[in-house]
Design goal:
mainly alpha, about 0% strand
C-alpha cells in the first residue's frame, strides 16, 4: 500500500499516468495534494483530470500548480504549466485572450533562465499558432533541436510532427512524411513518457494526410498504433478526437462508420461546452451532408463555425450547390489570399475554385487556376494531387472545346483516382469526361455517365448522383430503375426503407412501427437484397430519391 504524502505516492501517480490509468492517477494525486499542494502533485492532478475529460478541473489544477511552482522558485516548471493553460484556453475553450496571456507569461518566465527543455516547449507552442509555414518550420526546428539536446523524448517527437507538417505545407512532402514515419516508429516503441505525445503526433499526421491526399500511411500507422495500445493495455488515446477516427474510416471508403464518429464527437462536444482540438467535426459532417444533398442540415452544422479555416470547403460546396457562385468565389479568394496560392495547402481550394469559375462561365480564369494547381502538383510530385490537377485541367479543356486534351487529361485523372482508391474523384472525372464528349461521342458519354452515377450511388453522394442522373436524361437515357425495384418490396419493407432514408436506427424504426428490432433487422436485410444495395447509406440514398415524404410523427 502506498502511504499518503510520500514520494512513493507521487511516483505511483505519475506511473499511473504513463500507464493510462487516469482514475487511479487522479486519486493518487488528489491524496498527495491534500497533504501538500506541491507543483508536481497539482500538475499530475491536472493531467489526470484532462484525460478524464474534465477540462475546467484540469485548468483549475494547472493554475494552482503554476502558483506552487512559482512559490518554490521553479520558474521553468511554472512556464510549462503556463503553456498547458495557454493551449487549453485557446484550443478547448476558445478564449484567445487568456491563451495569449499565458503564452506571454511563459515567455517572460523563461527569458532570463538558461536554456532548458522548457524553452523548446515554448518554441513548439509558438510554432503551433504561427500562420506562415516557413515561420512555423523555423520554430518547430528549434524545438526539435532543443528536445534532442536535453533528451526530452516527448518534446522531440511532438516537434517532429510539427516540423513534418510544416515541410509538407511548403511542398517538401517526402521529407515531411519521413519525419512522421520516424516519430511514429519511436512513439510506438515506447519512447514517450506522456501519452499525449501519441495523440498530438497522430493528430498532426491526420492533417498531413489531408493535405497530401495520402491516407495509406495514416492507415498503416493507425493499425500499428492501436496494436501498440492493445499490447500495453492502454486505453484508446485517440478517442478524444473522433474527427481523427472519422478521417481514417473515410479514407478507407467507410463513410457510414465515419459519419457515426462525426455525429458522436459533435454531440459530445456540444454537451461538454468545449471546443475541438483540431479540425471541427461539424465542418467534416457538413461536407458529407452537402454530398448527400442535405443542404439545410449542412447549413445548420456550419452556423457559428463559418469563419473557421476548415469551414471554407464545405461552405463553398454549399454555395455552389445553391448556385451562389459569387459567394463561393469570394470565400475561396479570401482563404487563398491568407494561405498563398503556391503551397500544397492551397491545392484543394484551387480545385474548388476551378469548379466555381467554370460554373460562372469564366473559362479563362479557370484555366489560370488549373495551371497554378498543375504547378503545385508537379513540384510536390504527389499522384493524388496530380489527379485533382488533371481533373481541373481536363474540365477546363472540355469547357473550351479542346476535346482531345480533355479526354486525355480526364482519362489520366480517372486512372490516378482509381489507382489510389479515391472513388468520389473517379466518379467526378467520369462525369466531366461524359460532358466533354457528349456531342461527338454520345454513346461514350452515356457509358461514362453511368459509371459516374454508379460510383456516386455507392458512396451515398446523392447530390452528385442527381446531377449524373439528370445528365443521363439529357442524353435521352433513363438513369435509374428505382420505381421498378420499389415494386418488389412489401408494404412494410417500403415503410422501413422510408425511415432508413431519414437516418433512423433499427431501434428508432422499431419504436415508430411498433415492431421488434429483430423484425426490423429482417426487413432491412430484405430491403438490401431486393434493391441490390450494400449498406444503410446506399439504402438511405435510394429512399431519399424515390420516397421523399414528411417523416411520420
Amino acid at each position: 500500500m502506498v502511504e499518503p504524502g510520500t514520494p512513493a505516492q507521487l511516483d505511483a501517480g505519475w506511473e499511473a499516468l504513463r500507464a493510462g490509468a487516469w482514475t487511479q492517477a487522479r486519486y493518487l494525486f488528489e491524496a498527495e495534494a491534500a497533504e501538500a499542494e506541491t507543483g508536481p502533485a497539482l500538475d499530475g492532478l491536472a493531467r489526470s483530470r484532462w484525460w478524464l475529460g474534465d477540462v475546467p478541473g484540469a485548468i483549475e489544477a494547472w493554475e494552482r500548480a503554476y502558483g506552487a511552482y512559482r512559490r518554490a522558485g521553479e520558474d521553468a516548471a511554472a512556464a510549462r504549466a503556463a503553456l498547458f493553460l495557454s493551449k487549453e484556453h485557446g484550443q478547448t475553450l476558445g478564449n484567445h485572450a487568456a491563451a495569449n496571456g499565458w503564452l506571454a507569461r511563459a515567455r517572460d518566465l523563461l527569458d532570463p533562465l538558461p536554456p532548458s527543455a522548457a524553452h523548446g516547449w515554448l518554441r513548439l507552442a509558438e510554432s503551433e499558432i504561427e500562420m506562415d509555414p516557413a515561420g512555423s518550420l523555423d520554430l518547430a526546428s528549434l524545438a526539435l533541436e532543443t528536445g534532442r539536446r536535453f533528451r526530452d523524448p516527448d518534446l522531440e517527437l511532438a516537434s517532429l510532427g510539427r516540423v513534418g507538417l510544416a515541410e509538407i505545407w511548403l511542398g517538401r512532402v517526402e521529407e515531411g512524411m519521413t519525419r512522421f514515419d520516424q516519430g511514429m516508429a519511436a512513439a510506438t516503441a515506447g519512447e514517450p513518457r506522456d501519452l499525449r505525445t501519441l495523440g498530438d503526433l497522430f493528430c498532426s499526421m491526420m492533417l498531413a494526410a489531408e493535405v497530401t491526399l495520402e491516407p495509406e500511411r495514416f492507415e498503416q500507422w493507425n493499425h500499428l498504433l492501436f496494436g501498440y495500445m492493445k499490447k500495453h493495455n492502454h486505453p484508446d488515446v485517440l478517442t478524444f478526437c473522433g474527427t481523427c477516427c472519422a478521417e481514417v474510416l473515410g479514407a478507407a471508403g467507410q463513410w457510414e462508420e465515419g459519419e457515426k464518429w462525426l455525429t458522436d464527437t459533435l454531440r459530445a462536444l456540444e454537451s461538454s461546452g468545449q471546443r475541438t482540438r483540431c479540425v471541427h467535426p461539424a465542418t467534416r459532417l457538413a461536407s458529407l451532408r452537402v454530398m448527400q444533398g442535405r443542404l439545410e442540415e449542412a447549413e445548420a452544422l456550419l452556423r457559428g463555425y463559418e469563419d473557421l479555416p476548415e469551414a471554407t470547403q464545405p461552405q463553398v460546396a454549399l454555395y455552389l450547390a445553391r448556385g451562389q457562385t459569387a459567394l463561393a468565389a469570394a470565400r475561396l479568394h479570401r482563404r487563398l489570399n491568407q494561405l498563398g496560392r503556391n503551397t500544397l495547402l492551397a491545392a484543394p481550394l484551387l480545385a474548388q475554385l476551378t469548379d466555381v469559375q467554370l460554373a460562372q462561365g469564366d473559362v479563362a480564369g479557370a484555366r489560370t487556376t488549373a495551371e497554378i494547381l498543375a504547378g503545385i502538383a508537379s513540384r510536390a510530385g504527389r499522384d493524388r494531387v496530380a489527379a485533382e490537377a488533371e481533373l481541373a485541367g481536363g474540365s477546363v479543356a472540355a469547357a473550351s472545346g479542346g476535346l482531345e486534351e480533355a479526354a486525355e487529361r480526364l482519362g489520366r485523372a480517372i486512372e490516378l483516382f482509381t489507382r489510389y482508391h479515391m472513388p468520389h474523384g473517379a466518379a467526378r472525372a467520369h462525369l466531366a469526361l461524359a460532358r466533354g464528349v457528349a456531342v461527338d461521342e454520345p454513346e461514350r458519354a452515356v457509358e461514362e455517365t453511368r459509371q459516374a452515377l454508379d460510383g456516386f450511388e455507392r458512396l451515398g453522394a446523392t447530390r452528385d448522383a442527381d446531377l449524373a442522373a439528370g445528365f443521363l436524361r439529357q442524353l435521352g437515357v433513363r438513369g435509374r430503375t428505382g420505381p421498378k425495384l420499389l415494386g418488389e418490396l412489401s408494404k412494410r419493407e417500403v415503410e422501413v426503407l422510408r425511415l432508413l432514408g431519414y437516418g433512423l436506427t433499427n431501434a428508432e424504426i422499431a419504436a415508430r412501427l411498433y415492431i421488434s428490432t429483430k423484425t426490423v433487422a429482417t426487413h432491412v436485410g430484405n430491403v438490401f437484397a431486393k434493391l441490390h444495395v450494400r449498406n444503410r447509406a446506399e439504402a438511405a440514398t435510394f429512399a431519399q430519391r424515390h420516397l421523399m415524404e414528411d417523416v411520420p410523427s
